[in-house]
Design brief:
- This protein is of the alpha+beta class and about 90 residues long.
- About 35% of the residues lie in helices and about 40% in strands.
- It is globular and about 35 Å long.
- The mean pLDDT is about 90.
């Protein structure tokens, strides 16, 4: 399994989840877990996904999600699970 951690942060607007999930579905990336909150008009979402069925590398997915985020006015970050764990290790 090729787990990736995707975070989405920005001003809440209509269609953020739809746009991100459409990209994931189009690229055969399965959502394993998802958490989403809106606080005082600010949107925050974290997803754990399985990208093992995708033909794209984690780097390509990250670049394309960054473009999606720019189009809809949010910041989208994508990291392989191993990198995420090492960055957040105490």
């Amino acid at each position: 399994m090729k787990k990736t951690i995707i975070t989405v942060v920005g001003k809440d607007t209509v269609g953020i989840i739809a746009r991100v999930c459409t990209y994931l579905a189009d690229n055969k990336i399965n959502i394993l877990d998802i958490s989403q909150t809106i606080v005082d008009g600010f949107f925050n979402m974290m997803m754990i996904t399985d990208a093992s069925a995708s033909q794209k590398t984690t780097g390509q997915i990250a670049e394309e999600l960054d473009q999606v985020g720019a189009e809809i006015g949010v910041s989208i970050r994508c990291q392989h699970e191993d990198i995420f764990n090492k960055m957040h290790r105490i």
